[in-house]
Amino acid sequence: MTATALSVSDMVVTFDEFVALNHVSLDVREGESFGIVGESGSGKSTLLRAVAGLNVFESGRLTVAGRSYSGAKRDRDFYRTVQMVFQDPYGSLHPRQTVDRLLLEPLAIHGFTDVDVRIARALDEVGLGSGFRFRYSHQLSGGQRQRIAIARALILEPKILLLDEPTSALDASIQAEILNLLEQARRERGLTFVMVSHDLGVISHMCDRLAVMRKGEVVETFAADALEKREFSADYTRQLLVASEGFRRG
Ligand SMILES: Nc1ncnc2c1ncn2[C@@H]1O[C@H](COP(=O)(O)OP(=O)(O)OP(=O)(O)O)[C@@H](O)[C@H]1O
User: What start-end ranges are recorded for coiled-coil regions in this protein (predicted)?
Assistant: First the structure.
């Protein structure tokens, strides 16, 4: 049986009085690509951010690589194992920093010394090459910035990537390129993905299994094949499927 990469148990997140995550539990297996879908405001980003330590969870448990975490406290080992890629590559990268600086930062924090080799390798892996090393992030297109954000996430050789709508801020033609890049990295590195998207087309293309969220709760979890076969039990999933413009059968 495949080991569990990441386990969320009974997680609760509130913002003032508002319950954004209401006792959410899910297990993601090693090497799996796990999707999280649901309408706007259902709690998808809150869940990923709570896993990453960007939102505090008040109760429940998070287990990653056999270690338990609570609240928003994460240690160095956590960030060597888990990295996150955000939706907006304009907001997530400092515009007045060079690519070199952006990639150097995580390496320096984690005490790597072979930085030149790692930066060159990371730029190659995301299809940009060393010519980009001394460009400023404000000189890059959205797709190029997202490649740098992915390089920055991969440079520490994590095992798990949290992907929060990683292509929805990009043009349609660029979206496919970035999804292919992510899929290639996953295959080559044996990564585990937890990917949030409002687009069931993207999720059915990228993921092995998915959870449907509604109003801060997980409605159901099933294998992505079920999307094609229409085999899910909750009426809500059917409604979501019909409402999703991105989902195309076949
Ligand atoms: N920092 C915050 N402070 C207050 N409320 C928040 C905060 N972050 C999220 N929320 C609220 O929590 C709920 C869930 O938001 P979340 O961003 O997780 O939804 P989502 O499913 O990712 O939506 P979308 O697809 O639009 O990104 C929303 O009602 C949102 O307004």
Answer: none
